[in-house]
Amino acid sequence: MKKIKNKVALIFGVTGQDGSFLAELLLDKGYEVHGVIRRASTFNTSRINHIYEDPHTTDKRFFLHYGDLADANTIRKLLYMIMPDEIYNLGAQSHVRVSFDIPEYTANVTGVGALRVLEAAKDYEEHMKRKVKFYQASSSEMFGATPPPQNETSSFYPRSPYAAAKLFAYNMTRNYREAYGMFAVNGILFNHESERRGETFVTRKITRAVARIKVGKEKKLFLGNLDAKRDWGYAPEYMEAAWRMLQTDRPDDYVIGTGESHSVREFVAEAFRVAGLGNWKKYVGFDSRYLRPTEVESLIADTRKAKKKLGWKAKVTFPELVRIMVEADCREEGILNLE
Ligand code: NAP
Ligand code: G4F
Q1: Ligand 2 pocket, 264 CB below 6 A?
Q2: What is the CATH number of the domain that holds 185?
Q3: For the whole model, what pTM was predicted?
Q4: How many domains, the chain?
């Protein structure tokens, strides 16, 4: 891989699934990478521990800083201190179901948080006379009730506080681009998963449960709506797309997905099949706690623009994704071979 020397990136949300893959990717490309982490009473760096180096080494290229998207002062301070070339805002209260329980907090962090970073970046550009590129982690959830396939020109119809907050951040990103000439882009990413996916999102919840059932630690998996359809891809590939968006000549917005959609039921069936557990119906129960007051029924990405302008296309297929996740969770439980 061609190394890019002397570029500095700042990642909000570096401890998350995507943040950890993006940090790896940028380090691989030769960047100096700075990540913002929240103070927590427990360790929250498990996804990045493997790339974090001893702070005393001399050629260190990965740095962590305390900060929070709710804290404009610190965001501003970090920008002036780090002087990044690229900012990736991946930070969010990212759980759709939870956003119905904590809507105000979600709006503050997921929505206004992006505005805080944009405002700090604008101020930084004006005062430091330097340019900085900004990536906003927008979401296919913003399409909500708009029928599939969805692309960059489809209308938005948010169905949750999370989606409404993301739409605010999306619009702010566009506005800062148009009003102040900033290089600010929205990556409208459809669902992407991995062995590092948070344990309460449906795919990981399923693959973890499959592994635990396989070793006899659990008997049953309780889920909500099995009919919802999602366009599920593999997270590391999606971070490559995010990076490519910031390497273009002109800032723009892009839809990223596989173009294929599967129901939660299909994901469950495939995961139990891969683990060799037989009929999934024996193990899966219904719990209304996991239903949402308003649901997004069907998401399928139309990614023609990303293919044409970014040369990006998803490679990992649905069965491959399920297998990657089931095998990883089985390994965690000590099962090294599923054949
Ligand atoms: P994730 O695993 O939930 O990671 C979210 C990150 O945001 C974590 O690092 C989290 O820190 C951080 N965060 C939460 N509240 C914060 C706050 N107040 N201040 C600063 N940081 C905060 O999410 P992900 O799956 O990696 O997704 C990355 C981004 O893409 C999110 O914005 C998400 O909404 C968006 N997105 C995701 C998908 C998807 O399918 N994965 C699709 C479209 C868009 P802690 O570790 O301390 O909690
Ligand atoms: O895995 P999920 O919680 O993901 P959801 O709601 O699609 O949101 C994810 O993808 C978005 C992109 O479109 C991101 F912006 C967002 O940050 C997040 O990463 O739920 C997927 C589907 C839903 O229809 C849900 O109702 O699975 C259904 N589901 C059924 N049973 C369940 C469950 N979801 C969860 N989390 N837990 C269940 O037990």
Answers
A1: yes
A2: 3.40.50.720
A3: 0.98
A4: 1
